[in-house]
Amino acid sequence: MIKLSSSSAYCAAxxxxxxxxxxxxxxxxxxxxTIPSASSSSHIVLNAKVIRVCQSPxxxxxxAQSTLDSLTAxxxxxxxxxxxxxxxxxxxxxxxxxxxxxxxxxxxxxxxxKKVKGDALISLLDELSDxxxxxxxxxxxxxxxxxxxxxxxxxxxxxxDYQSAIQSYEDAIQIARNPAMAxxxxxxxxxxxxxxxxxxVNWLVDSFRNSCRARLxxxxxxxxxxxxxxATVFSQNTDADALMCLxxxxxxxKDTMGELQATKAAIAQYQRLEDEYSKPMPGKDAVARAEAxxxxxxxxxxxxxxxxxxxxxxxxxxxxx
Length: 321
Hints:
- This protein has helices at 7-19, 57-61, 64-74, 119-128, 137-158, 162-191, 202-217, 221-234, 240-252, 256-276, 286-320, and strands at residues 49-54, 79-84, 96-99, 111-113.
- By secondary structure, it is mainly α.
């Protein structure tokens, strides 16, 4: 890890690294190249199990988003987790649809599981595990334990109990970081063209971001800086909000140059999101198109607001030079 003599220098150096997209090189045995996600074609054949989580209004009310997030973070290598449409399980959600290995997802009779949460979710994770490709059982137990701890930390953070959130996030990351990295390496080794090297650790990125902001609220600038930088590293410099965490840390430590660079990097990622979700979505349902429109609109709005911030920062730098 790079060690610098002052917090201001650290923020500026970190932001500069981010702008040149080399932050990921700082994580041993973790960083893998980002591979394009699966094709959006309406007729594809996959070599891995496809796990589709129903996102109908009824299932979402029953906790489908939490189930989708958990399976994305915890499912064994060889499982492609994605959003799914209604499979007529209304009132028994969250409903998960499982398509066996190597089958055509348009023709196979899928296996459907109802009320996939709590113990039923853990049982499904055990069922999906494959001893030949999965991480060890002890590491998987640690991963699940840490993930659940992170959920408790997030609840404390949202309740503005920042001290409890910080401690719980520390425990969650300590317990589950290495198993999460091992799982990502195992996924990458067999994922092929369908593998997204960042998606599976989004919960870790979220944990670092929230911990950063909790520490800022508690005036722990150094701890917030470490968490912000970790969030950018684990997201491979692609998470706009992680970059904004770094900008907020630089602002709190009065590092105008670092804040400017981090904000510019965040704008670049919001622009990427805007471009990505501006593309036509043939074959997608109305819910997916509405979600894409929302993401695009939010990215455009935040990007514009950050543009005003950049103008102000550039003026401050010019006045102080």
